[in-house]
């Protein structure tokens, strides 16, 4: 099949009407007018599963009673015919996560069973299990019926997962249905766990089991669709044709809000599986309990522009039909989708050109169990934010792709890799990372990176030879273990933090005491003889009463170890600098992170700018056209949970090193920019930045 037949390989924009059963009589032409007016070219439409919006002949389907309002009695038939007449694609939304009571009573083994032996019932619907025949067998009958009747362009599966929580986020537990029990026992040789106990190896295996079930099911669905209609796309999180992400909010989501979530997901997906497009569906309402309250336009704008800037396809959705919201509620969605439509040529074949990669590690998070998010995710996200605010373009690389990228040669294309508490590494990953540094790459590691083997056992020595520490001597960790401790930028002997401009040493001393706060954890490590050390530990000291607020002891225990290894170099920070920056936002922590990056880069940074930290800059390229594409996103409107219209930022100078261009244009301002070219570098000045912009350099 040619790429022409695979429409999803080209840029596109989707609008979803997440229909209620009472919407089955909607005005198809009116909805299509709206979809095209806001710049979308694809309609995501409820089709089957919980409610079918066509007269299904299958006994386990429930057609909407409101189909009687249509002359044809068939919304899907009407919608596909009208949409295709306009050149609009239709994606069928299916949801097999729940069935009605009559189906559940007829097929009890299709349903989720809690550890208490109870069904999960929500608003009269019974949750199903992906291990059971409804997903494993009957789903294919439903897909086949839709394909036989309608020339749809794709399928999207809602709630494609195990129903441990319901819509109210109540936890119901690990499914104990007969299919889960027998399949899990056959796979792992042990009984299915009943409780979420991270100290139980079977619970970790349960997570592996759910992933394998969903991946296998997705593969079979994808193969089934391809065998029937190769031009039909499967949109999912698990093994799809198009990787899907929903950008949403929640009223109980703790602060600080992670406003970079869309960019995080798209960066990682585009790095891990560059041949698969990413579709980001932006939720236009506030939260599941408040589906008819419109989200802040500034928040919607950030979601949509992040998706676009990092090579994803922007999309939006609402409950019901567009008439439920006011016309002005779609302004920001239309603004971004129309821009993407009008400049679609720039997004075809767009790839990140970042020369830094931040390594993510789901396995390390699982190793730490319930505290995994705090110890791994926040470490990554703190460093993520420091890189964005310092305008260092980067990708996110899952650790399970390290070996694959090394073999393809893509890993060597990065100037530096950052390992934020990537605690668990296997032998192949260790070898790949050391070989990367030996070949001239830079590597930054924090906290417990390389401290554990794949079985979760602590290593006698750190797993990376390239690091400047041989082994961990002692681990001090806990809410108060390092309370009131510091890292001194100048050790007691009088020498400062090793070298580097724009880093933590001289800058920190110039603005304060030269004492960087330390909390939560610190690893006492044995430095290798040829390592250069800095940021020395001042152990926990007295902090009250004021008369006693001084310390008696300073040590030589390093908080920074620099090490040459082959043709490359490493920086190791044996403490949670990223997590601390994520939570506290102290400039000292950001400077430590960025200084470490500068220390190991084998050449000058890819980009320098006078833009403020509130501007994110992403650098991409198009291989065929030879263009360099620079996106800027303005976060100046963000304050806590408020997302106001961003402030205009004027006269931003951007210098790209390693790029030679003779022409530059602001796609947003629709104007040419003056270009200053030097030896292997290009400088442009953007006169005005609003919500976002795209600079095209040729």
From TrEMBL:
InterPro entries the UniProt entry points to: Class_I_gatase-like (IPR029062), GH (IPR017853), GHL6 (IPR028212)
Transmembrane segments: none
Gene3D superfamilies in the cross-refs: 3.40.50.880, Glycosidases
SUPFAM superfamilies: (Trans)glycosidases, Class I glutamine amidotransferase-like
Source species: Actinopolymorpha pittospori
Region annotation (Disordered) ranges: 488-508
CDD domains attached to this UniProt entry: A4_beta-galactosidase_middle_domain
Name of the protein described by the UniProt record: Beta-galactosidase trimerisation domain-containing protein
Biased composition (Gly residues): 493-505
Taxonomic lineage: Bacteria, Bacillati, Actinomycetota, Actinomycetes, Propionibacteriales
């Amino acid at each position: 099949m040619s790429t022409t037949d695979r429409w999803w390989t080209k840029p596109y924009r989707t609008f979803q009407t997440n229909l209620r059963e009472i919407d089955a009589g909607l005005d198809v032409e009116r909805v299509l007018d709206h979809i095209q007016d806001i710049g979308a070219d694809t309609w995501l439409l409820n089709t089957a599963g919980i409610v079918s919006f066509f007269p299904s002949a299958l006994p386990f389907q429930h057609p909407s009673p409101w189909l009687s309002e249509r002359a044809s009695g068939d919304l899907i038939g009407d919608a596909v015919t009208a949409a295709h007449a306009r050149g609009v694609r239709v994606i069928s939304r299916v949801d097999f996560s729940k069935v009605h009571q009559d189906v559940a009573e007829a097929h009890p083994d299709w349903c989720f069973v809690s550890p208490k032996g109870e069904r999960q019932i929500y608003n009269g619907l019974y949750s199903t299990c992906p291990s059971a025949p409804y997903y494993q067998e009957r789903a294919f009958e439903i897909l086949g019926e839709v394909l036989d009747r309608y020339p749809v362009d794709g399928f999207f599966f809602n709630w494609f997962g195990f129903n441990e929580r319901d819509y109210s986020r109540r936890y119901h537990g690990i499914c104990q249905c007969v299919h889960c029990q027998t399949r899990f026992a056959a796979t792992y040789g042990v009984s299915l766990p009943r409780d979420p106990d991270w100290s139980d190896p079977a619970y970790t295996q349960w997570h592996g089991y759910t992933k394998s079930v969903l991946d296998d099911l997705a593969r079979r669905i994808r193969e089934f669709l391809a065998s029937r209609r190769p031009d039909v796309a499967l949109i999912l999180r698990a093994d799809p044709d198009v990787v899907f992400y929903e950008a949403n909010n929640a009223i109980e989501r703790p602060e600080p809000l992670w406003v970079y979530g869309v960019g995080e997901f798209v960066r990682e997906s585009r790095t891990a599986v560059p041949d698969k497009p990413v579709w980001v569906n932006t939720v236009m309402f506030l939260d599941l309990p408040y589906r008819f309250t419109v989200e802040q336009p500034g928040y919607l704008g950030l979601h949509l522009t992040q998706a676009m800037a990092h090579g994803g396809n922007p999309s939006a959705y609402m409950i019901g039909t567009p008439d439920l919201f006011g016309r002005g509620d779609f302004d920001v969605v239309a603004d971004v989708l129309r821009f993407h439509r009008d400049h679609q040529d720039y997004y075809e074949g767009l790839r990140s050109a970042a020369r830094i990669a931040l390594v993510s590690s789901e396995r390390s998070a699982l190793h730490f169990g319930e505290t995994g998010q705090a110890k791994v995710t926040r470490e990554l996200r703190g460093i993520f934010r420091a890189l964005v605010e310092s305008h260092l373009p980067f990708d996110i690389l899952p650790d399970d792709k390290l070996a694959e990228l090394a073999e393809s040669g893509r890993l060597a294309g990065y100037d530096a890799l950052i390992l934020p508490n990537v605690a668990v590494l296997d032998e192949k990953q260790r070898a790949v990372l050391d070989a990367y540094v030996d070949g001239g790459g830079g590597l930054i590691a924090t906290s417990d990176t390389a401290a554990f083997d794949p079985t979760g056992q602590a290593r006698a020595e750190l797993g990376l030879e390239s690091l400047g520490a041989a082994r961990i001597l002692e681990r001090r960790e806990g809410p108060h273990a390092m309370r009131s401790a510091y890292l001194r930028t100048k050790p007691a002997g009088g020498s400062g933090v090793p070298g580097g401009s724009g880093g933590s040493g001289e800058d920190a001393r110039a603005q304060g005491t030269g004492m960087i706060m330390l909390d939560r954890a610190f690893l006492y490590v044995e430095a290798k003889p040829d390592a250069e050390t800095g940021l020395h530990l001042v152990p926990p000291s007295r902090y009250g009463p004021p008369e006693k607020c001084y310390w008696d002891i300073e040590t030589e225990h390093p908080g920074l170890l620099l090490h040459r290894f082959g043709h490359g170099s490493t920086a190791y920070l044996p403490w949670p600098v990223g997590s601390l920056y994520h939570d506290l936002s102290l400039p000292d922590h950001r400077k430590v992170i960025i200084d470490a990056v500068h220390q190991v880069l084998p050449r000058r940074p890819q980009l320098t700018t006078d833009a403020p930290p509130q501007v994110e800059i992403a650098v991409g390229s198009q291989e065929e056209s030879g263009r360099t594409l620079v996106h800027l996103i303005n976060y100046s409107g963000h304050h806590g949970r408020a997302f106001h219209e961003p402030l205009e930022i004027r006269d931003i100078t951007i210098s790209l090193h390693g790029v030679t261009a003779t022409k530059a244009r602001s796609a947003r301002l629709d104007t040419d920019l003056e270009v200053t070219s030097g030896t292997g570098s290009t400088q442009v000045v953007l006169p005005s930045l609003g919500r976002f912009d795209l600079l095209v350099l040729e």
